[in-house]
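Suppose you are handed a protein chain with no further information: no name, no annotation, nothing but its sequence. What can you learn? This example shows the usual starting point.
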Amino acid sequence: MSQILTLIVHPGPPGDAGPAALDWVLLGDRGTEPDAIAAVEQLVKPIDRALPLDQRQRTHWGITVLQADNTFDGGPVWAFDQFPLPDISRTSKSSLYQGEVTSSTIRAVTVALTRISKAYASLADPSHRASRVAVPVDPIWSRECISHGVPFMGGALLDRPQIKPGQRRPDFTIHTAADVARIINCGDSQPGGTLRTARSFIFAYDAKIHLRVQDLPQALIQESGFASWDAIPAGKALATRDGAVLFKTKDCGHGVACAHGCGVAVWLTHGRLPKSAPTQPLPAKVPMAEALRNAGEGDKLVGVPEWLAHDFAEVPGTWQQVFVRSVQEGDAIIQFVYWDF
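A reasonable first move is to predict its three-dimensional structure. Written in structure tokens, the prediction is:
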């Protein structure tokens, strides 16, 4: 770092620091609680989705291209960009990283390299390494994003630590499907959320919200052993599909016509056992039904039916690994095939 100018891309705006920036923002952190432990305790509580978006999550997030120095995530800023943050209950860490974060990174790195090139051109001896590392940056670059030339719009920024696996543990009896998805998917694809088991816990991945009761086959309710949907307890496994497991979650209280996207159940597609010992390798990620059986929780799946997807027609509001969206164009039908493996 003293001889070669080194750039770091931090997945957070200037002022944010720590090894879990995307985890925190996708858990719902708005920077209003400075104490990290107290913040996590608050963030894993149920969120009322009837509240305005800016009271449930940040409205924006960003990335910073900074120069490496002796301060962790605190070197001179060569460029930063920001973007509107999607609904965090429907966004996983990997999808945000591969989408908005990557796009902003490409833009900001391009601007940063252009600024560095111009700075080098003004040096008396551009080949002198120490001179290149010591090139000063314009302080305004840490205050104005490259896309819009405005300061960060997403709220207060802090230095946050890693979030421990045990702090990402939803409870189906108190959390809606949207809450479960938010808590689990903020840890995708590592380390994942966690579910308590009789022995210990398992890691859980890839939570998908099922929005409406009316889109569930009546047979699933009948085979549950309960007289009605309302009689089924939160946390009960309702169905499996290709190894994924559908669990009923807590009712949001907004009524059957809930317009806030809280959901009534959640699909968990994959799971993983924890290490048997610190020196052992991490077990493989497997379909959730297999993970539950491996964890000694197979009794939760006894009598649970397989809900097969008989065709690929799109059914909004549920999880489909593969679906076809049909669009009418004049006398023709255009069909788009989507997959999520």
